[in-house]
Amino acid sequence: MSSNDMITYSQAINLAMHQAMELDPSVICYGLGVDDPKRIFGTTDNLIEKFGAERVFDMPTAENGMLGIGIGAAINGLKPVMVHQRMDFFLLAMDQLVNSAAKWNYMFNGQRSVPITIRLIVGRGWGQGPTHAQNLQAWFAHIPGLKVVMPTTPEEARGMLLQSIVDPNPVVFIEHRWLHGQTGIVRDTPTPIPIDKAVMRRSGTDISLVAMSYQVVEALRAASALEQQGISAEVIDLCSIRPIDWPTILQSVEKTGRILALDSGALTGSVSSEVVAKVSETCFSSLKSAPARMGLPDHPEPTSYGLTKDFYYGADKIAIKAHEMVLGECEAERYAGLAGTGHHDVPGDYFKGPF
Amino acid sequence: MSSNDMITYSQAINLAMHQAMELDPSVICYGLGVDDPKRIFGTTDNLIEKFGAERVFDMPTAENGMLGIGIGAAINGLKPVMVHQRMDFFLLAMDQLVNSAAKWNYMFNGQRSVPITIRLIVGRGWGQGPTHAQNLQAWFAHIPGLKVVMPTTPEEARGMLLQSIVDPNPVVFIEHRWLHGQTGIVRDTPTPIPIDKAVMRRSGTDISLVAMSYQVVEALRAASALEQQGISAEVIDLCSIRPIDWPTILQSVEKTGRILALDSGALTGSVSSEVVAKVSETCFSSLKSAPARMGLPDHPEPTSYGLTKDFYYGADKIAIKAHEMVLGECEAERYAGLAGTGHHDVPGDYFKGPF
Amino acid sequence: MMSLSSTQAKRIYSMMQFIRKTEEAIADNYSSGQMRCPTHLSIGQECVPAVLSEILTVNDLAVSTHRAHAHYLAKGGSLDAMVAEIYGKATGCSGGRGGSMHLIDESVGFMGSTAIVGNTIPIGVGLGLAKKIKSESGIAVVFLGDGAIEEGVFYESANFAALKKLPVLFVCENNLYSVYSSLKDRQPAGRKIHELAASIGLWTKQGNGNSVEEAYDVCLEAYKHVLSGLGAAFIELDTYRWREHCGPNYDNDIGYRSVAEYEQHRANDPIATFETQLIENKIISQVDCSDVVDEINHKVAQAFEKAKAAPFPDERSSYQHVYAQESV
Amino acid sequence: MMSLSSTQAKRIYSMMQFIRKTEEAIADNYSSGQMRCPTHLSIGQECVPAVLSEILTVNDLAVSTHRAHAHYLAKGGSLDAMVAEIYGKATGCSGGRGGSMHLIDESVGFMGSTAIVGNTIPIGVGLGLAKKIKSESGIAVVFLGDGAIEEGVFYESANFAALKKLPVLFVCENNLYSVYSSLKDRQPAGRKIHELAASIGLWTKQGNGNSVEEAYDVCLEAYKHVLSGLGAAFIELDTYRWREHCGPNYDNDIGYRSVAEYEQHRANDPIATFETQLIENKIISQVDCSDVVDEINHKVAQAFEKAKAAPFPDERSSYQHVYAQESV
Ligand SMILES: Cc1ncc(C[n+]2csc(CCOP(=O)(O)OP(=O)(O)O)c2C)c(N)n1
Ligand SMILES: Cc1ncc(C[n+]2csc(CCOP(=O)(O)OP(=O)(O)O)c2C)c(N)n1
Ligand SMILES: [Mg+2]
Ligand SMILES: [Mg+2]
Fold it and tell me: Which of A234, B221, D198, D258 is positioned for an S-S bond with B315, CB 3.0–4.6 A?
C-alpha cells in the first residue's frame, strides 16, 4: 500500500498510521478492535504486526477512563491515536475530552499540551439506528482547545491524519463510514496536510455550497447537475470544523452572493448554523438572497429501512434547494436523476451488513 | 415562603420543589448536597425535613450512573429531579443523557417517555475557572428529544420548574449562579408556566436583543440606557432554548429589522449562532443591517481576577454594539456608566467566596 | 433433577429450544437482506435466560443489551413483535424504530434493551429504586455481559444498588468475549468477575451457565435473596457464544479464537445436554422433543411470515415521538 | 522510629509543618478577599504527603485533585509559585489561569491537579503507561480522596493499571467526607475501600494516615512494589480534614459532623503526635521545633509578600494558550 496509487479512504488512513508510527516511535494506537480480525474496517491493518503489541493495543470497554489514560500518556511524551468504531460510544468520554484534553494547555498556562488524536467513525445505514449513527460534530466544534477535522478525500484523510498526530493539540478526527470505500490518488510521501484549511473542490459563481465529510460527495454531484442547468455552484469542503477557515468561505460568498451550508448532523445548532450565522454577520451586504442550511431532521435516526429513506439528504435535494435559491422555483423532478437507484441504506451494492 | 411575595430566584426554585413534591408523591429530588447544610444555595431547603430521606437524598459522586438510575426510576413511574451544583460535572453523564434519556421515547416508538428534570447550575466569578463555570447549553440544545430551559426571573424559575417536572420528557433546567440572588414577585399558586415560550421583556422598535438567562438582565439594563439615547430596543428572553419559540423572535425581527443575539456561552457554535442563522434564513428581506451575535470569548475561563475582567460582557458592551447597529458609530464612553463599579467577579458585595 | 419439577424442566427445555429455533431462523434468513440492522445472536447461550423464565414473574422488570433476543423471549416478550422489529416493520415491538438492539415488551416487564454497552445497567437499578420507593412487588433484573462490567457505569450502578439495598439482580453472562476481544486483553489475569462484584458490596454467586440445574439453583437462590429484601445480587454464569459477535455466521476462521476452543464449548451445548438428561431421566422422550421443536418451528415460521408480510411504518411518521405529548 | 533515620524523621516533621503553616497562612489571609478562587485546605492531612516526600524522587510523577496544596508542596513544588497562583498572579505556577485547584510544577514531577472529581485518575495511569512504553524510570502517583473512588473512571483506570501492571501508585486519603457527605451515604456499610481496590486487581495496603511511622511503612512498601515492576498498587490512609471542605473556616457548627467527632480526630493531630514522639526519642528538641517553625513561617510570609506584590497577568494575554503552537 503506497506510491501515488488509487487507494481507498480506509487504506489512506492505514497508510498514514504506518507512516506516523514509522516516523515517530512515540506514536501509539489503541481502541476497541484495533488489533482484531476486522482491524477497524481495515484502517489498522498490519499495525500490530509491524509495531508490536506495546504500541498497538485493544482496550477494555471503558471509554472515559481510556481517553484519560491517553491524555496522561500524551502528557508524558507519547502521541496516542485512539479509535472508536462509532462516535456514539465516545459520549461516555466527554469529561476527559472537554475538561482535560481541551483545557490542559490553557489552564496550565501553555506549559504542557495534549497531543492526542481521537478517530471517531460515524455510522450510517443498514439500520444503525438511534445510537450507532450520530453526527455530533457540532459539540466538538463548540469547544475551545479542540481541533476537529472531517476530511472527505483519501489524500486528505491521509495527510490530515498525519498532521493531526503531529499537532501538539487534541484533535478529533471524524470519519464517515460511507467514505471508507471512496477511492482517490494518494501521495506516497509522509507529507502532512494542514488541518485548518478549507478546500475549494469546485469553483463557481452563482452559489457557494459549503459542506463537510460525506456531504461534500453529494454536493459535488449536485454541482455537476446544476452546471447542466446553467447554474455555477462553488463547492467548499470545510475539512476542518474547528477552526473553520473563514477567509476561504467568506471570499467565496462575497463572490457568489449565495450560501447553502450542508451539514451531516441534525440541523438545529449544527455547524451549518455557525457557518450561516458568521456569513450573515460578515457578508451581509454581499448576499443576494437569504442564506440557507440543510441538515438531518431534528429527530433520532430510526432503524427501519422503511423509515430512513428521507432521513439523509443527497445530491437531488441539494440541487433542488440550490436551484431554487439561484433561479426561484424548481420542479421536484428536475434533479430526480440524482437520487440513488439501489437500496438507500447502503453506500453500494458491495455492502451486505451487518455493520 | 409563599404568597405573591418578593422572593429570590433560589427561594422560587425551592418553592416550586415544595409544591411539586406536595402535589405528587412520585416526585423525588436527589444529587450531591441536596440534603447537606448548604442545600444547593438554599434551593432544597426543608425538602428532606418535609418529604423524608426516601424522596430526598444525597448520592455517591457518580454522575453518569446516577443519571441512568434517575432515568430508570422515571421509566418506572417516578419523576426525579436531579441536581448538579455545576454544569461542568454533568459532562460525565452525556451517554445517559443523549443515548438514553433523549431517545427512549423515540426509539421505543412512543411507548415510554422519561420524565426527568435535571437542574444544572452555571458557575461564574470568584475564580471558578476553566471547569466550574462552563455554559454548555448549546450542546443540550442540539439534541432532539431533550427540552432545555434557562429561566431568568424568579417567577419563571418557579413556574418553569414546575412544568419541567410534570413534562413527560427529559428537561435540562439551567440556572445561572448570578440569578440565584435576584428578587421578584412570585405567584403562590402551583401554576406551571409553559416551557416552550419566549417572553418579550420589553418592547421596542429599532432592534431586537435576544438573550437567555443572566444575559437578559444585562440586556434590559442596556435597553434602558439605549432608550435615553433615543434607541428603542426590544428585549426577548428565550426562556427555552430547545425548543426555541421562533414565532416570537421572527415577529420581533420583522418589526425591528435588526437582531443582536446575546449568548452566555462561548460564541462559536452557540445558541446565538442558531438564532442568527434562523433569523437570517427566515427574515432576510426584513433585515436592515447585518445580524450580530455576542458571546463569551472562544477560550476557557481563566481563574485569575486579573484575567477575567473582560471575559464576561455586560450592559455596556451590549449597548455599544446595539447603538452601532442602529446608528453607526458609537464612542466607547457613551455607555461607560453601565459598567459595574464593584469587583467584576461577584454578583454583589454580599458575595465573599469561596463559591 | 433436584430442585426442578418435571413440568418446570420441560418448560425450560422448551424455552431453550424456542430461543434457539428463533435465532436459527434469524440466521437462516439474514442473508436475504431483509433484516437490515445489526443483529447479535445468543445461540449457545440459551440456558440462563430459559432458567430465569421459570423464576421471574410479570412483576419483575428486566433490561438488556445489544444481545437481547433471548432475554426478551424468556421474559415472555412477543415473538411476532420481535421478528417484525428486526424486519423493521410497523408491527415491530418498537414500531421499527429500534431494530434488533432495541426490544421492548412492557406488558411482560421487559422494559427495554439498548445498544450502548453498559447503558441499561443504571436504568435497571433505577427501576429497582422506583420499586423500593413505591413499595412495589418484584425485582429488577439487569442482563449484562462480561464486557459491560468494564464500564465505569457498572461500578457506579452496583455501588448504589448495594448502598441502598435495592431489589436488583445483575445477571452476567460471561461468554469470554467482547466482540473479538478475549477476557485476558481486558481484565486482570485471574480476577473473577463475581468476586469483584462481591467486593463492591453485592451478594454474589457463580455457576455454569450451560447447565440448567446449576444455573437454576444459582438464579433461584439469588432471586430469593433479592426478593426477600436483603439487597442487590450479582450472578455470573459461564457460557459461550457460538456464532459471530454480530451477524448470522460462524467466524472461527477469522482467528480471534481457536477452533479447538470453539469445539470444546460447542460440546457443552446446554440444550443437547439437558435433552439427554431429560430423556435419561425419562422426563421426556425423543419423540416429545421432536414435537416440541416442531411446534416451535411452526410458531417461528409463522412469525417470520407475518413479519415479512407486514408493512413498513409510514415514512411520514418518522418525525413522531421525539417528544411525548401528554403530561404525566 | 523503626524504618526512619533521624534525618528522615526530621525532614518529614519539617514537611508537615511546612504544609500546615502554608495552609494556615492561606486561611488567615483568605478573608481579605485577595485569593479569589475556591480553595481546599489539607490542614490535619499533612502526614501522608509529607511521608511520600521522603520516598518519591523527581523521576516519579504525580497528579492530584481539588485539594492539592499538600501534594504539590510535598512533591517539591515551588511555594512561591503556588501562593502566587492562589492570588491569581502572573508569577503563579499556572500563570493565574488555574488557581488553587490547578497546580503544576513539572520541574519536580508534579504534573497537575484538576478540579473535577476523579478527573486526574486516568491521567495518572496514562503517565504510568507512557513510562512503561518508554521504559522510563520512576512511577506515577495518583492522589485521590474517598469520594473520588465512587466515580466510574476510578474503576476503569484501576482495571487498566492492574491489567497492564503499570507503574502506578494510587494514594487514597480517606478523610471520611466528600464535601458534607459522610461515607455511609455514599458507599455500602462495612465495605473497605482498600479491599475493593484489591478485588479490582491492585496490590493494596491500608494504614493510619495520621501516624508518620505507619504511613511511612505503608507508602514505602507500596512504592517498592510498584517500582520493582510488580504492578500497580493502591494504599488507603485514614485521616481527617479539620476545616471546612472549601474555604478557610471551621464548620463544625453547621451540622454535618459532630463536634465530638471533630475533637476526637483533632486529638490525632499528626504533627503534634509526631513532635511528641521525636522529642521523647530525643531526635529533636522543643527548641529545634520552634526553629523549624520559625524558619518556615518566615519562608511562608515571604511567599505571601511576593505574591501580593506580584502583578496580575496581562488581561490581553487571556486569549493565549488555547492551542499550543509548535509541533511536538
Ligand atoms: C460504549 C460502547 N462501546 C463499545 C461498543 C461496541 N460493542 C458492541 S457489543 C460489544 C461487546 C460487549 O461485550 P459483552 O458485554 O461481553 O457482551 P456480549 O457481546 O459478549 O454479549 C462492544 C464492545 C458499544 N456498543 N458501546
Ligand atoms: C465530577 C464532580 N462532581 C462533583 C464535584 C464537587 N466536589 C468537589 S470536591 C468533592 C468531594 C470529593 O471528595 P473526596 O474525593 O473524598 O476528596 P476530599 O474533598 O475529601 O479531599 C466534590 C463532590 C466535582 N468537583 N466534580
Ligand atoms: Mg461477552
Ligand atoms: Mg474525602
Answer: B221
Grade residue B3 by pLDDT with cuts at 50, 70 and 90. low
| Nearest CA owner, ligand 1 atom 13 | C178
Interface contact C321, partner B, CB < 8 A: yes
Nearest residue (CA) to ligand 2, atom 17: D145
Residues D103, D63: Cα–Cα separation, whole Å: 9
CATH number of the domain residue C55 falls in: 3.40.50.970
The answer to whether residue D168 sits within a structural domain is: yes
Give domain status of residue C322, yes or no.
no
Q: Is B331 a catalytic residue?
A: no
Q: Is C127 within 8 Å of B147 when comparing Cβ atoms?
A: no
Residue C312: DSSP 8-state: P
Show the domain range for D283.
Answer: 6-317
Residue of B nearest to D89 (CA): B304
**CA nearest ligand 2 atom 21, residue:** D145
Report how far residue D265's alpha carbon sits from residue D241's, in angstroms, rounded to the nearest whole number: 9
For chain D, how many structural domains are there in total?
1
Name the pLDDT band for B1 (thresholds 50, 70, 90). Answer: very low
Q: Is D175 in the pocket of ligand 2 (CB under 6 A)?
A: yes
CA contacts within 13 A on the Cβ side of C107: 6
- φ/ψ (deg, to 5) at D150: -75, -20
Give the residue on B whose Cα is nearest the Cα of D245.
Answer: B354
**What pLDDT digit, counting tens, does each position of C19-54 carry?**
999 999 999 999 999 999 999 999 999 999 999 999
- Residues with Cβ within 8 Å of A138's Cβ and at least 6 positions away in sequence, in order, are A263, A265, A269, A270, A271, A273, A274, B138, B142, B269
Q: Does C124 lie at the interface with B, CB-CB under 8 angstroms?
A: yes
Q: Smallest CA–CA separation between B260 and chain C, in Å?
A: 30
Q: Is A355 in the pocket of ligand 1 (CB under 6 A)?
A: no
Contact D187 C201 (CB under 8 A): yes
What domains are there in chain A, each with its CATH number? Answer: 5-186 (3.40.50.970), 199-339 (3.40.50.920)
Q: Which of C264, C291, C318, C312 is nearest to C14 (CA)?
A: C291
Q: Which residue has the cell 442602529?
A: B326
D141 and B CB contact within 8 Å: no
Q: How far is the CA of C241 from the centre of ligand 3 (A)?
A: 8
**Which grid cell sits at A253?**
460568498
Ligand 2 pocket test, candidate residues D117, D154, D187, D241, most atoms within 8 A of CB: D117
Question: Residue A65 half-sphere exposure, CB side, CA atoms within 13 Å?
Answer: 24
Question: From CA D168, how far away is CA D174, in angstroms rounded?
Answer: 19
User: Do A110 and D324 meet the contact criterion of CB atoms below 8 Å apart?
Assistant: yes
- Cα A259 from Cα A235, distance rounded (Å): 10
pLDDT tens digit sequence for D21-38: 999 999 999 999 999 999
DSSP letter assigned to residue A287: -
**What amino acid is encoded at B134 in this protein?**
Q
Q: Is the pTM of this model over 0.95?
A: yes
Three-state SS for D236?
Answer: strand
Is it the case that residue A346 has pLDDT exceeding 70?
Answer: yes
Partner residues linked to C143 by β-bridges? C171
Kindly list the residues from chain C whose CB atom is less than 8 angstroms away from the CB atom of residue B104: 112
- Taking the Cβ of residue A267 and every Cβ of chain B, the question of whether any pair is shorter than 8 Å is answered with no
Which residues, in sequence order, are bridge partners of residue B139? none
Contacts of D152 (CB under 8 A, 6+ apart): A64, A65, B62, B64, B65, B92, C151, C152, C153, C154, C155, C156
- Residue D2 pLDDT > 70, yes or no? no
Q: Could you say which residues from 288 to 317 on chain B have a Cβ atom under 8 Å away from some Cβ of chain D?
A: 297-300, 302-311
pLDDT < 50 regions, chain C: 328
Residue with the smallest CA separation from ligand 2 atom 11 is D178
Q: Is residue D301 part of a domain?
A: yes
pLDDT for residue A1 is more than 50: no
| Distance, CA of C304 to CA of C301 (rounded, Å) | 5
